[in-house]
Each structure stands twice: as C-alpha cells, then as structure tokens.
Amino acid sequence: MAEFRFPIEILRNVLKPLVLMANDANIFFDPNRGLRLKLVCFIGYVDAAVFFRKESLANFQCPNRTSSSIDILEFGRALHRLGTNGLVALHFDTEELVLRLRTVRFGPLTPERLLMEPTEERCTEMALMEERSEFMQIDESKFEYDLLIGIPSSQFRQILEDVGELTHFVTMYVKETAIWFKAKDKVFYLCKELGHFVTVGPTFKKPVVLEFALYRITSFQLASQLSNMVWICWSLDAPPLLNFPVGSLGNIHMYSRFYPEIKKMRFVNQSRKEAAPASPLH
C-alpha cells in the first residue's frame, strides 16, 4: 500500500512525454526515498524513469517497499477525468491491484493546506497489474557519470528542432569551451562563453563524443518544458542520459539504451570514424 497527494497538472504534464514512449510502466514505492516509475520503450532506443522525492509527496504513507505495474495511458485518462486543477489523492492498493484517485479541494496552496482533511469532489479508480520483470532493462543505480553538460531548456529545444528536421541520429562533440551537434552535413554550435551551456566534471584533451537517436524527439521536447535546464550525462561505462529536473520535486531520466548498436548502425559502412568537425570557436 502507498498513498500521497500531488498537484494534478504537474502529474499530467510529467505523463505527457511518457505516454508517447510506452504503454505500461513499473511503479516502485520506497518509504525512505519516494516514488520511482520505470518504463521501456521497445521501439526508439530509449528507456525512461521518473523519480519523485519523498519530500515532494504530500501526506506520503508507505509502510514498506512495494511495487506494481500501471497502464500509463489509462493513468493519464483517469487524471483527465478529475480535471486540471488542484490536488489529487492517490491510493495504490498493491494487494488488490487497484489505484483509487480523488480530487482534493483547497484554497491558497500552503503547507498547512496540504495537511488538511480533503473535501472530495471527484473520484475514479483503475486496475493495477503485477510488476513486469522486463521493466526496465537498465539498472540506473549502477551508473556513475563523469561529465554533466547543462543546456538551458529553450536552447535544447531549439537544437532538437534544428537537427530533428535532418536526421534520426545526432552526434554531439563536447570540449571545454564549445559543443557542436552534427546532423548529416549540418553542424550547430554552442559556446560556453556566451552562456549556451555549463559543464560539471573533468576536462578532456579530445572531444567527448555522444550519439543520440531522435525517434522520441517529441518526448524529449515535452520533458524539457518541465525543466529550466536539461542535463546531458556522459561516462565511458554507462549509456548517455538526458536528465530533466522537475523543479525540486524530482527528475525525468531518459537513457539511450542501445547506444552500442546505434554507433554500429551509424558507422557500419565506414572504415573508420569521421573526425570531429572543426569548431570556429578555437
């Protein structure tokens, strides 16, 4: 069993990029950490996970760790039936496999209001499912990232719009002072001195190279609308990660699951990798 209250509008907006990627997701509750939602996109080379911290879940009750699977499309429909404003109280019965939802009436949103007894306005419920063992194939707890690249979300969406018109794959080259995105014969540059991005981590003599499949570009764009900054995380021992912080509530993570296969597809007809394009910023 687990229950909590959460703003309906934020929850619906978090679901928007996810319902375009998969039908079902596993949902995990931890009494010490909060909520995790994991899903596998079987077409599109991306896995996703959503984390809501315990502190962001009002009236969070979860005696023990528990989990189940949920139809995220039906979950979105259930939230739609409740309206767009206010709080929703969610009760996950993981024994009977039922999710019960009800709206909570409130005035000005204050901590005191969140703790008040609710006045029910609308109620609905939906079925849950047993946890699915194949969700998800990536175990994010094992990953540590060496380099974090922060790009303002508006800048990130513009890059996606530019490269998405050209190709389904984009190659990203990162140096200390510049980033360039190569899509077919087009190159798009970002300059650190102009505030286009920030980095956290060590510097590298040679450009760090990342590749992303853009089959889920709409999900990337929707997720970025929830963040002020999009973080691209890189490590030799982990798949590239797009991290979309949702304010102080939590994060949406999207992983490039088939990264080795993407590289193989991109360079299968080449005898060697192409060199990074020359940067005009050096």
TrEMBL record:
MF-aspect GO terms: DNA binding; DNA polymerase processivity factor activity
Gene3D superfamilies tied to this protein: 3.70.10.10
Pfam families per record: PCNA_C (PF02747)
Record-level GO BP terms: leading strand elongation; mismatch repair; regulation of DNA replication; translesion synthesis
Coiled-coil regions listed: none
Any one GO CC term of the record: PCNA complex
Limits of the Proliferating cell nuclear antigen PCNA C-terminal domain: 143-255
PANTHER family, alphabetized: PROLIFERATING CELL NUCLEAR ANTIGEN (PTHR11352)
Name of the protein: Uncharacterized protein LOC116205755 isoform X1
Source organism (scientific name): Punica granatum (Pomegranate)
